[in-house]
Automatic annotation (TrEMBL):
Domain Glucosamine/galactosamine-6-phosphate isomerase: from-to ranges: 8-214
Organism: Alkalimonas mucilaginosa
Name recorded for this polypeptide: 6-phosphogluconolactonase
Family: Belongs to the glucosamine/galactosamine-6-phosphate isomerase family. 6-phosphogluconolactonase subfamily.
Gene3D superfamilies: 3.40.50.1360
Reaction equations catalysed: 6-phospho-D-glucono-1,5-lactone + H2O = 6-phospho-D-gluconate + H(+)
Domain of life: Bacteria
Amino acid sequence: MQFHRFENSSALNSTFARWLIRIVKDAIAERGHAYLAVSGGRTPQALFAHLAGTDLPWQQVTITLADDRWLAPDAQDSNERLVKSVLLQDKASAAHFVSLVTTDERAEQGAAVINQRLSSLPKFDAVILGMGEDGHTASLFPCSQELSLGLSTTQDAVAVHPTTAPYQRISLSKQRLLNTQHLFLHLVGAGKLPVLNQAVAGDDVLQMPIRAFLHHPCVDIQVMFATE
Ligand SMILES: O=C(O)C(O)[C@@H](O)[C@H](O)[C@H](O)COP(=O)(O)O
């Protein structure tokens, strides 16, 4: 794990955007296309806005989510709505988006279609994770019955029913999230640091699923942190 601490979120986001732009450009130079998986929630919104205004060959970029809430794509709490309304705007409106939802009523009914969509994507160039105060990441929640599956399956995505957070979810599996050139954990807020420290100090991944990424022997996760 590499820990990068910034004075504030604006310093964090400008460095983070610069690194991501480099990653996207390198990927396009190497294989003609870049693939990113981003998280929803509050933390990435300013980074998304920053990226949206950046000149890049966005038509050669495909973006998906680390997880989504099983909601209509225009629902207020949908991560897809967030990405479309903040990231896929302005210059970035030319990017391709792979949705993690279908019109099925239940997440498990749509999971096969989502898995098919994801299986057509190669290794990601960058995955940006967030972390909740219970140590969840993506929608791999300590409280959910599907956690062990999400941590062990070779499938790309799993349907999840958290008991401590709203909505059915669809989450990329640990294996799919780790299938990336670069892995980031984006943390803004003083309250995230004690959670990170607690996660780093222990090894029970069922208690804090983020540990599966922090302690991975082969993937060097970059933690991007600012207190405000
Ligand atoms: O859909 C979501 O909510 C997520 O992708 C989730 O894993 C998020 O990244 C963390 O809960 C942190 O959320 P905040 O950025 O809002 O603190």
